[in-house]
Amino acid sequence: MSETAIELVDVNKWYGTFHVLKDINLSVQTGEKVVICGPSGSGKSTVVRCINRLEEHQKGTIRVDGIELTNDPNSVAAIRSEVGMVFQQFNLFPHLTVLENLMLGPIKARGISKSEAEAKAMHYLERVHIPDQALKRPGQLSGGQQQRVAIARSLCMEPKVLLFDEPTSALDPEMISEVLEVMVELAQEGMTMVVVTHEMGFARKVADNMIFMDAGEIVEQGTPDEFFGSPRSPRCQKFLSQIL
Ligand code: ADP
Ligand code: MG
Q: At the top level of its lineage, which domain of life is listed (predicted)?
């Protein structure tokens, strides 16, 4: 992978006439962990969704691993094959077992054999510490376990970059830490990660770069020490005082 994993240059997006992203500039180096926070409606989800073309930007440049994201289906496919995404809602297939959920992508999109896909699925279920849940259906698992399955499902596609959009926001409080622990382990193993979260303990532990968004703009960015120690903008100070 090239040194710069993700690059956004002057990215702008509108929903109809609503200017949702305004000149977003963001660079994520390979192995780097970026945490994005900010008030609800500030455009955090839209940024991460633009990176793998779940949403389309109208102006500016997005590159992943040196590949520019354009309307060319080859560009979109190439980028999606490098980028995994974990959502607030786990989006697992309820009628399939955990194992089948994990095998689906590699078989369909990567064309690997069933037995290879099964071995891979078990490998990543072990990595998120729930190999014993392989034969259950998602509905039989706790929310924290389901989100770890969703993370394992992403890992089965062997992405170069993982995007997380508020992965613990839908979880009961007692299940948040089991998911964050898995994410910390991934971070420590060197995964390139962009994480939208308000879990500031996690952010302090793993972030190389903290981004604060408000009203479609990146208002502030810096190391966790800079960010938490001396936020410069009043908007960021206010946000931190509300959540810390
Ligand atoms: P965040 O993730 O920071 O809460 P979002 O990126 O989801 O913010 O949304 C940013 C703004 O764009 C919000 O005002 C939201 O209502 C609006 N928005 C999000 N998705 C759409 C959409 N599909 N169509 C129109 N407006 C949208
Ligand atoms: Mg959001």
A: Bacteria
